Fold each of these.
Amino acid sequence: MNLEAILILSGIIFTIGLYGSLTKRNAIVVVMCLELMFNAVAIAVIGFSRFRPPQVLVDTDVLSPLNVLSGHMMAVFVIAIGAAEVALALALIISIYKVKGNIELTGLNNLKN
Amino acid sequence: MEFADLPTLVDIVFWIVALFTIFGSIAIITVNNVFKSAVLLALTMVSISILYFLLSADFIGVIQILVYVGAVSVLIAFAVMLVKDVPKSNSANNLINLSIIPSTIFLVIIAFSVGAENWITKTSIDYEEPLSEIVVSNVSWIGELLIREYFISFQIAGLILLAALIGALALLRRER
């Protein structure tokens, strides 16, 4: 287990989420793929925080909690924003269902004509 | 083979969990049933939290299970009720072949930029060992950082959650 393996894993998960959110017709699956992309970013920052604390950024050799745990803090905020995003996305999906009767994103071209 | 070259238990668990995460993510977008892919999303989130535990981020792993497996998966399983034809509901649109191109370009860029950097020599810390006491017992340090250095960000995150809640209620309010 090293930093390269974790970054490559994070990139693969982000790519799967990107591909799914580009190609899926169902709104729920698009939300799931967005959550996958959020989690890929969180894996990357946790990996940076574990293997390479950003001492070069703060120009000190002291391992203070502010240096070592900065990735953890970013992951906390990523998870919080992900939870807020999924609540809003569910409300939007229910609104789409009220208007259209289904939740297929392909049919949402009302502004086209 | 030297004894030091043998993979440790952490390495074996990491590779198993990484493979499970990748195949779980692929299965989310390839199974035909949306409900199955919601269950697979919960399983993938559990394996990602095991990855956080391996990276000695205990608090983030617990929060991952609480938020994603406990709350987000329940919300998504609730949204599955709106789907008409559940067994064949995970169909793709007509971008299914064209989307391979930007995804592949993105993955190639990530792989080249990870491979171009020499990560290990730039850190002054022996990365096989746990970093320090800070990483080993990080829950109390995260609490202290949240109310000291990251206080404004913490309050703004709370405001964003409140705004998302009010926005969701306002979207679903019945017009009279």
Amino acid sequence: MADQEELAGLELAYQVEQFYNREARFMNQRQHRQWLETMVHQDIHYWLPINENRFAKDRRPEVTPEDGGIYDDNYGDLEFRISRLETGQVWMEDPPSRIRHLISNVEVYHTDDDKLLNVYSNFHVYRNRRQRDETNLIGGRVDLLVREGDSFKILKRRINLDMRVVLDKNLYFFM
Amino acid sequence: MVNVDNLIDLENGIQSKKVFWDQEVYDQEIERIFGRSWLFLTHESQIPEPGDFFTTYMGEDPIIVARQMDGSIKAFINSCTHRGNQVCHADSGNTRSFNCSYHGWSFGIDGELAMVPLEAEVYFNKLDKAAHRLPEVTQVDNYRGFIFGCFDAEAPPLQEWLGDMAWYMDSWADTGGGAELIGTPMKTILKCNWKVPSENFIGDGYHVGWTHSAALQMIGGPLSALSGNGELPPMDDVGAQITTRHGHGFGVIWELGHAIHRDPGDYIQFQQQTLPEVIEKKGEWRGKFYTGHWNSGLFPNCSFLYGTNTFKIWHPKGPHEIEVWTWTLVQKNMSPELKREIKKQAIQTFGTAGTLESDDGENMETCTRTNRGFQTRRGTMNSSMGMDGDGRHPELPGVLGASFIGETSYRGFYRFWSEIMKADSWADIHKNDETWIDNWLGKDAVSGMAARNIA
């Protein structure tokens, strides 16, 4: 698919990369509400499907949004998660954990609609909690971004976490 | 052999912290509990067609559960009888055979050894193939679509193992078309002992208001008053705690089955539509249970939240780690749209990124990890809440506590844990079948709930 799409020019690709860097900084600094309000589209579908290990010959259809997922969130769902973090009563975040997002492999493509961009990227999320509790989660994202002035909003995000058994106690953070 | 009496004080509701840490306790659990109990394998809705299979564990043993050509279900050990290699690495699927990746031995969907490469040339046709089938799980049976397996031929039949717990579960497992599990399970890990979540789900109404304070506050609705234990409902009328013969038990909050869902309208409507059927088939009491919220456990390591539609198994991975598998539990007669909506809400609360799930994991890990300390491990844990209120109820089976927020089902879980850990065989356990309540609580113990006559 991506091969037939028109690659974005240098300036646009740079803007998207900076958009992702800013997003990562918001996450790392716990500015979740700022992220939601300035970077997320009201009609977002934020989706992290459940992986299953299947034989290569398995003929069942690929997972679709209809199957739900670990995240299957609209704007209100994301807002709910963020509000919970803001109550000050999430004991596992007190003292706060540390989190760092590294974003790479950003590919930006035009679509048939001038306002929409298809973007692929990879992430490495490092979490460090309590004294010596650490996890590393690596995956990819497929985004549909809406151009808004000089910036963008995330209209669709599909997150692919590259593991079957999630080697962490939860995924209550944004990727 | 571990001296179980040094670990469990039934009379005072006390457990040694060693039960969450010691390797020798764990080894004995694997042999005596996981080797002799009925363990949840899968739900028949997960393998509907002949040739469908699902892979899981019984204790730490890898297991294949497969739908046979005649529609029956068999389970066998997922390890080649030649050199022990795992023969199936897929989570689920449909197949005619399981082919070992080492030397190519091929086993049928029935576990029989069907084909051995170069059989004539290298074994000279002298290999006894019948003797090399994948070892079958000794007993496999089905309770209303939930498939269980047991490695002990002497264990009682599944229906007897579930006992009074099945009487309660029938209120929703035998109404509304029956229950089913939908989707592939989420899988995650927790560095905790398998009993920490098992005991939490079976009987911990106490933590709800505090551990989940933030989520309850945000969800709003009838449970939000519990947030931070701010405003407590009248404790004698809020629900019940129940434990049964083989350690299964639950806590129920009346009328609030739906309360952890953010948008429960369609679910409430389904319950109201089906409630007359439940009362007609199962009576008034089970109608009351049907619309309640249950935090529940099937001994040893299967837990579910009826109402929040979450079904879990905690696979032990040594004394200090588990794999958590989570499905969505629905009733078959729900519309596809309602099932989809419930699945979304159930995963949003108790899935891998759940708004309540993430509160629990941290507690469960450190309840285990602190016992690394020698002095810590010499200490004990307390589950004495509401002890004086445990006893019989004139109309309900099992042992009931005084209130929903109590630790009756904790005590019941460790009562049976202690019994099966000590017993040399099922014959020993059967000796207590008629007298377990008398021996535990005395002949005259009446549930605090019954004593207040709130029924």
